[in-house]
């Protein structure tokens, strides 16, 4: 129906599950990258998700360089046979993989105006210094450690501060709530201890229970600390999956669904037949795949 937004159930679609560099990563000939060149379903776009309110608002979480493909996947999941043009963009922080697609909104590409931008003052400041805000209309943002970024009839979006190499901006996780489900989107943070301490918790399960989430997409950049041969892993701090599994143990009946994402190309979880993949599945957890849609 032209002119009136189509009413459908609110939804959350995962549009990217890789770390900022995506998979395959430029110039890399590791087995995971080579496999992703030959088998397209093994490729991972940098993290992003699409939230549709069911009332014509489409909130993109993160602007990755795979934006053209991701908007098409989102449209496909909305049964539109065309890409979604986001009405809103929400950004967790300014590391390159999360903002690389911002230029696509400008006059060289989509040429959109007044896309509502939901981000902290520090993120806005970083982008404004680079002249990257022209296509956007920033929404007011209350820079508290837990704050609402967007509300509508059925869907709310909250921002939760998390510690993460905050050299250029602060970093948030995003909580997306609808009538049926509540989803935590946590692509990057430095370690569980600091994140939990900031929110006055000492274990992941209690924090997740208090957030009342049904699903969590969480930082699974590295499997363990041996992964980056020849590089100092303290330069790129993330909780490892082994550490997360140690803290969580096996899935319990009242746990949320936990989906691991933001995978680095080196992570053995990229290989569907790895022992590591079997381990996490036996424990009741998953590796996220792009295109998954959850009714909100
Ligand atoms: Zn990242
Ligand atoms: Zn690689
Ligand atoms: Zn980051």
Describe the structure.
This protein has 296 residues and is an alpha/beta fold. It has a single domain, classed as Ribonuclease Z/Hydroxyacylglutathione hydrolase-like (Metallo-beta-lactamase, Chain A, 4-Layer Sandwich). It contains 8 helices and 14 strands. The protein has helices at residues 31-38, 67-77, 96-99, 121-129, 192-198, 204-211, 241-248, 275-282; strands at 11-16, 48-52, 58-61, 88-90, 115-118, 136-138, 146-151, 156-161, 172-177, 182-186, 215-219, 257-261, 286-287, 293-295. The longest helix is centred in the first third of the chain and has 11 residues, at 67-77. Residues 25, 28, 30, 32-33, 265 line the site of one zinc ion.
């Amino acid at each position: 129906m032209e002119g009136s937004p189509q009413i459908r159930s609110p939804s959350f679609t995962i549009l990217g599950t890789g770390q900022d560099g995506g998979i395959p990563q430029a110039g890399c000939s590791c087995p995971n990258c080579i496999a992703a060149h030959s088998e397209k379903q093994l490729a991972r776009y940098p993290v992003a998700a699409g939230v549709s309110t069911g009332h014509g608002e489409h909130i993109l979480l993160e602007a990755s360089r795979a934006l053209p493909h991701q908007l098409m996947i989102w449209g496909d999941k909305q049964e539109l046979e065309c890409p979604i043009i986001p009405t809103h963009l929400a950004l967790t922080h300014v590391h390159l993989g999360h903002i690389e697609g911002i230029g696509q909104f400008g006059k060289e590409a989509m040429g959109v105006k007044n896309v509502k931008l939901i981000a902290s003052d520090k993120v806005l400041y970083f982008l404004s210094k680079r002249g990257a805000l022209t296509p956007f209309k920033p929404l007011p943002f209350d820079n508290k450690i837990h704050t609402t970024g967007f509300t509508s009839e059925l869907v709310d979006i909250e921002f939760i501060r998390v510690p993460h190499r905050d050299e250029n901006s602060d970093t948030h996780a995003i909580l997306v709530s609808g009538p049926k489900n509540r989803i935590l989107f946590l692509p990057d943070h430095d370690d569980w201890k600091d994140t939990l301490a900031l929110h006055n918790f000492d274990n992941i399960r209690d924090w997740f229970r208090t957030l009342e989430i049904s699903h969590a997409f969480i930082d699974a950049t590295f499997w363990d600390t041996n992964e980056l041969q020849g590089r100092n892993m303290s330069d790129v701090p993330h909780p490892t999956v082994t550490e997360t599994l140690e803290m969580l143990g096996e899935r319990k009946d009242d746990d949320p669904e936990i989906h691991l994402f933001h995978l680095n190309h080196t992570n053995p979880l990229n290989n569907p037949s790895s022992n590591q993949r079997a381990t996490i599945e036996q424990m009741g957890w998953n590796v996220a795949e792009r295109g998954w849609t959850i009714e909100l």
